[in-house]
Amino acid sequence: MGIFIACVLLIILICLIAIWVASTYNRFQIFTIRINEAETNIDSVLRKRFDLLNKSIEIIKENSEVEDDVLSIIEKLKSKKLSNFELDRKLYDALKEFNKYKERFPQLKSNDAFVKIDVEITESEAEIVAFRKYYNDIITDYNKIVKSFPTNLVALVFHFKSKLYFDGKDMSDEDIRDFKL
Fold it and tell me: pTM for this structure?
């Protein structure tokens, strides 16, 4: 009778552990889906920003005395496949260049197409800030369960790794290079 009770208790314990592992695994999957959703949102805003900057090139050339490459960063990005982190950094540099043209050539501000692009770029900045915050909030929660006991055991078994925040830092920054994936 004692062996029977011990076996039943062992089976119950194994079932409880299996249920907990499955539940924890599902939490990781939910976070993965939310992270992918946030990345998709960021990607769409970055692509929109890229398209707007690309459209502005001809307008800047037509309305200024610039002979050389305008927004050369954008031209170089057309053929590259970049992560959202890298694309965000490159587009930020292109935005700085865009703003320099805007300040250097006041006649651009009287061009309706340019003004429309400028307004849309400004709106996209608000969107990207909101999506970065959403992404980073999800990453914070995800990294907490990757690092904390006992969920870190499930993370270890199923190879879930900590993820980097979307903070606009250069990947060569020391604190990011030292971050272990």
Answer: 0.78
